[in-house]
Specification:
The structure holds 3 protein chains of 3 kinds.
Chain A: H1 19-36, H2 38-44, H3 47-64, H4 66-69, H5 110-146, H6 148-162, H7 166-180, H8 186-201, H9 204-218, H10 221-228, H11 233-269, H12 281-292, H13 298-329
Chain B: H1 2-29, H2 33-37, H3 44-54, H4 60-72, H5 86-121, H6 126-140, H7 143-157, E1 170-171, E2 176-177, H8 182-215, H9 218-225, H10 230-268, H11 273-283, H12 286-314, H13 316-319
Antiparallel strand pairs in B: 1-2
Helix pairs in contact in B: 1-4, 1-12, 5-6, 5-8, 5-10, 6-8, 7-8, 7-10, 8-10, 9-10, 10-11, 10-12, 11-12
Chain C: E1 6-17, E2 20-32, E3 37-41, H1 48-56, E4 64-72, E5 75-76, H2 82-88, E6 93-96, H3 100-103, H4 110-121, H5 126-139, H6 145-148, H7 158-170, E7 176-180, H8 188-205, E8 208-212, H9 216-222, E9 225-230, E10 233-239, H10 240-245, H11 250-257, H12 297-301, E11 307-309, E12 312-314, H13 322-327
Parallel strand pairs in C: 3-8, 3-9, 6-7, 7-8
Antiparallel strand pairs in C: 1-2, 1-4, 4-5, 9-10, 10-12, 11-12
Classes of the chains: A mainly alpha, B mainly alpha, C alpha/beta.
Chain lengths: ~325, ~325, ~350
């Protein structure tokens, strides 16, 4: 690093050499900056945000430790007592087992299905966001840096994507993927198809943000200088562009997570998402809807409430992030 | 103005061509069209004959031109699933979706605009805060859950409204409507609200933000300084200026509403094109999917054009060429 | 002198903020006689525009009148309910704002805006109101007024638009017009025309004007009397000729020194060191004391009120002893700025 002052990272003067250590160093710097900023201050001052963060944390922990927390193993057919089917919440079950949120037709404990369902929802949501972010950041960087027809192509495509609702694009991608994968045990790949569909339908915002920042950085001296000393400009720019877009990307990603969770639930509800063998919250709601008319409301209402809580909490976190970061960014 | 419209038209044509191209790729290359048409017992020779007959061996651009030409005439071939011409199925189901979408848009506008105006004019009232919170929840609520909650409340618990279907349809020959019967009206209430709720919250927030902005402008201050009545200032001057961006968003949202009808129609088993499309996605019915894609794109493009024209109606600055202004800036 | 048209007494305008209350206008008193033009000058942030807004009851929330009185034709108007002050606006007090480009609603023809103003304040029929609108446009010098009445604001040039704004302000024949920087946004060549128009119309209609501006030249040309504001307070008020020729308050003296004048052989313009304090930290005593070249101990301790000095009134301890102040030759300003006073 000492040989060229040009590509000194903005984070600090003593950047370690190995990429991994550098990344860690960078993260620590970011973290320190965050803790010192008024981010933490505004967080503490907003009770709504604290509650939203707590709920999100509960969902995340519940998903990670699902097998330990869930009262019943709902994926083991032997563990379900068919005789306990449609037990109301805290109602008397045939076998005498107690179910906080009741059971479904097959006697599965609703609370446990919700815990496992949230797990699937969160996994798909988080993976879709990561996929969309990588896709969007790369395309945005390419568009901004290369310019010309590449830029035009990417940004015009982005415009077309923007003019259609996320859910529609996700449905189309999903539908095409299904057509391509017919016969290839589409069910097994369903989770990946979902991640892909949702990711592809939400990359545009990342690309636009990154492209804008890249255009700003592109003509700065250090990029020219880096080129002169034979360093690859893209790598240099990545290191300068990324810290600058970290805030907006984080906001987009957080709000995007809420959107991804809702989109996943919607697709699953429509019956084109994850298969019933791995039910997400949306699948549970779809299955439960059929029992709604027979009075077994808990099968669909409780997963519904879980979904609302999760989506609303993540949305609130995103809103808070946007408000807290925006004054500095604009 | 003419130049502007021509430019927009050209843009629309390009978008349609792009979408048409995607639809064409789907149509021709995803899944083998021949396989979906013939049975297992068809021989290779027969298949090849069919290929030739359908023009599937023609050059790429010729195939695309043919596809575009057919699509322009509404011909998207046979549905794999229904074994009927796609355009027949779509025309059968279009009225249901359009009626639902228009009712939703009217609901969203009719409730969203007054709520937005109210919250802008009474920023600190308790009711405004309630509206704002409800709108935040509304944004976070997935459409299908709203539908289910409405069904649970009004169909299962209270039993006021039917939970699914489109009863009371009257055939007018060129159109069949459910808006001429009491049963039809009762059945459309919940789907329309479900579909329009998100747009309503969006419009409300937009109107509020725009109105607050307009209320801070000089011409509003000047209007007050002239002693105009509050009503004239708020509704004569502020609201009309607020409407320019609202028209854009509402117009664009109308397209979104038609697309989102997929979900609402599934929840309420509403026999429109959304339900058709979701069936097509489930069963990989490519002709229906590509037809739906082209049709939705067409709606979007037409709506965009109408929005552009509405601008001219609302904003005189766009209507008349600027005279050679002297002085000032 | 008979009862003044407008009397403002000890006006105080506050802005509650999270970090405490800002006092933007602090104890300002003045009056406006029938038909006269009172110029109000000061730097931006001196509180001159807010004073105008307060008089007409159009302070933008959270700004509010926290003390004092505004009396129009013997009637107190600062505490009237909304509907009553609304009736006064336009009919008794008109207003003209800085930017003619933004003062007119872009979506309505000027005729419509005029007619609605006329109908609000009179019982004229629609067609009579339209005739009156055309008449007003003619009066402010819009050519082909009967055709232009149906034009939209964007079809007029900046100067023409400001003429329309003046027509709108005069539509109901108010007794007083508050003109807040009416020419600042215009081309220099147009400014003089608009000022001349405003002056002529007000003379013809017998309308008094409060002319808020930061441009001493405008005041010199247009006003009868001038009020100088500094940091939300009144520094000096008096006949315009007197204040310009013989400024008394050190701030006014500095202000005059900063104006170029043709024919004077002054080598350079003076400037006042420092800048106006922010509303959050106005010094105790006289607000000008940190920048004043003739500051006394007392200036840092006590706040001066307006003290009569010659034909003017000055808020400055230098003139505390009324007799002594009158004796101070006007041509003997502060030594620091003496070289520009001529």
């Amino acid at each position: 690093m000492t040989d060229s002052p040009i590509d000194r990272p903005s984070a600090g003067a003593f950047a370690p050499r190995s990429p991994l250590a550098r990344a860690g160093f960078w993260m620590r710097e970011q973290w320190r900056a965050a803790a010192e900023s008024d981010l933490w201050y505004s967080f503490r001052r907003s009770p709504v945000t604290i509650v939203a963060a707590l709920i999100t944390l509960i969902f995340v922990l519940g998903s990670i430790f699902a097998p330990l927390i869930a009262p019943y193993n709902v994926f083991d057919p032997g563990a379900n007592n068919l005789m306990d089917g449609l037990t109301p919440p805290l109602g008397d079950s045939f076998s005498g087992s107690s179910y906080l949120m009741g059971t479904d037709l097959q006697g599965r404990d609703i609370l446990s299905t919700i815990i496992y369902g949230s797990r699937i929802s969160l996994i798909v949501g988080v993976c879709a966001v990561i996929f969309a972010a990588i896709l969007g950041v790369s395309l945005g960087l390419a568009a901004g840096y290369l310019g010309g027809w590449v830029d035009s192509l990417i940004m015009r495509t982005a415009d077309v994507f923007l003019s259609f609702p996320t859910i529609l694009i996700a449905l189309l991608v999903d539908g095409v993927a299904r057509a391509v994968l017919t016969g290839h045990r589409a069910g097994d790949l369903a989770v990946y198809v979902m991640i892909f569909s949702i990711g592809v339908s939400t990359w545009v915002q990342y690309a636009r943000t990154v492209r804008g920042q890249t255009l700003v950085e592109k003509n700065k001296e250090y990029v020219q200088a880096a080129r002169l000393v034979g360093r690859h400009p893209v790598l240099i720019m990545l290191r300068h562009v990324l810290p600058n877009v970290m805030g907006p990307v984080l906001v987009i990603a957080t709000l995007g997570l809420a959107l991804a969770i809702i989109t996943e639930a919607t697709l699953s509800f429509l019956g084109v998402g994850v298969p019933p063998t791995q039910p997400s919250l949306g699948t549970l709601i779809r299955i439960g809807q059929e029992e709604l008319f027979s009075g077994s409301w808990w099968i669909t209402i409780f997963p519904g409430i879980a979904l609302i809580l999760l989506a609303l909490s993540v949305n609130l976190l995103g809103d808070w992030l946007r408000d807290a970061l925006n004054p500095k960014l604009r | 103005m003419a130049a502007f419209i021509i430019k927009r038209l050209l843009h629309s044509v390009i978008v349609m061509l792009a979408v048409g191209f995607v639809a064409f790729l789907m149509f021709n290359y995803v899944g083998d069209p021949i396989n979906n048409m013939v049975g297992q017992e068809t021989t290779v020779v027969q298949r090849e004959q069919l290929r030739e007959q359908l023009g599937l061996n023609d050059p790429f651009y010729l195939q695309f031109l043919r596809f575009a030409g057919n699509a322009a005439q509404g011909d998207f071939g046979l549905s794999y699933q229904h074994r009927r011409p796609v355009e027949d199925i779509i025309m059968e189901r279009l009225p249901a979706t359009l009626e639902l979408s228009i009712m939703s848009a009217l609901f969203a506008l009719g409730v969203g605009v007054p709520m937005g105006v109210y919250t802008a004019l009474n920023r600190n009232s308790v009711l405004s805060k309630v509206f704002m919170f409800v709108s935040l929840v509304g944004v976070s609520l997935p459409t299908f859950l709203i539908g289910i909650l409405l069904i649970f409340l009004f169909a299962v618990q209270l039993q006021w409204l039917p939970s699914f279907g489109r009863p009371g349809v009257v055939d007018l020959g060129w159109w069949h409507t459910s808006l001429l019967t009491w049963d039809g009206w009762k059945a459309i209430i919940m789907p329309a609200i479900t579909l329009g709720l998100f747009q309503m919250t969006l419009i409300m927030r937009l109107v509020r933000a725009e109105m607050l902005g307009v209320l801070r402008t000089d011409y509003i201050k000047f209007a007050r300084a002239r002693g105009l009545k509050n009503r004239a200032v708020h509704f004569g001057h502020a609201l009309k200026n607020t409407m320019v961006p609202v028209i854009t968003v509402t117009g664009l949202q109308l397209g979104t509403i038609i697309a989102f009808a997929i979900i609402t129609e599934t929840v309420f088993q509403w026999p429109g094109i959304g339900l058709l499309f979701i069936g097509a996605v489930r069963d990989a019915d490519i002709p229906v999917m590509s037809a739906y894609l082209v049709m939705i794109a067409f709606f979007f493009v037409v709506i965009n054009l109408i929005v552009d024209l509405l601008y001219f109606a609302v904003d005189p600055r766009l209507r008349v060429e600027r005279p050679g202004a002297s002085g000032g800036h | 002198m008979s009862d003044p048209l407008l009397k403002v007494e000890d006006l105080r305008v506050e802005f509650p903020t999270r970090r405490g209350t800002l006092v933007a206008v602090d104890g300002v008193s003045f009056h406006v006689d029938q038909g006269e033009v009172l110029g109000v000058v000061g730097e931006s942030g001196a509180g001159k525009s807010l004073t105008g807004s307060a008089v007409i009851g159009l302070l933008e929330p959270p700004g509010r009148i926290a003390g004092g009185q505004v009396i129009l034709e013997g009637e107190r108007i600062d505490n009237l309910p909304y509907e009553r002050i609304r009736r006064i606006r336009g009919r008794k007090i008109g207003a003209i704002f800085q930017d003619p480009l933004t003062s007119l609603n872009p979506l309505y023809t000027v005729g419509r805006q005029l007619v609605e103003t006329i109908l609000t304040h009179t019982d004229l029929s629609l067609s009579k109101a339209r005739d009156r609108a055309i008449e007003l446009l003619q009066e402010v010098g819009i050519p082909a007024a009967d055709r232009r009445v149906d034009s939209f604001p964007h079809q007029f040039s900046g100067g023409m638009r400001q003429r329309v704004v003046i027509a709108l302000a005069l539509a109901a024949n108010p007794r007083l017009i508050i003109a807040d920087e009416p020419t600042t946004a215009l081309d220099v060549s147009i400014q003089a025309q608009i000022l001349a128009l405003l002056k002529r119309l007000c003379r013809e209609h017998g309308t008094a004007v409060i002319l808020v501006t930061h441009d001493m030249g405008v005041i010199a040309e247009t006003a009868n009397r001038v009020a100088v504001m500094y940091a939300g307070r009144m520094a000096e008020i008096g006949p315009v000729r007197d204040v310009i020729k013989h400024p008394r308050h050190p701030y006014t003296i500095g202000l005059m020194g900063a104006i170029p004048s043709v024919g004077s052989d002054v080598e350079r313009l003076s400037q006042i060191d420092g800048s106006m304090p922010r509303l959050t930290d106005i010094p105790t005593g006289c607000a000008f004391n940190p920048r004043c070249t003739k500051v006394l101990d007392r200036c840092r301790r006590d706040r001066p009120d307006l003290i009569p000095a010659g034909t003017s009134e000055v808020a400055c301890w230098l003139y505390d002893d009324a007799g002594a102040a009158a004796d101070i030759p006007a041509a003997q300003p502060a030594p620091g700025v003496a070289h520009v006073a001529g």
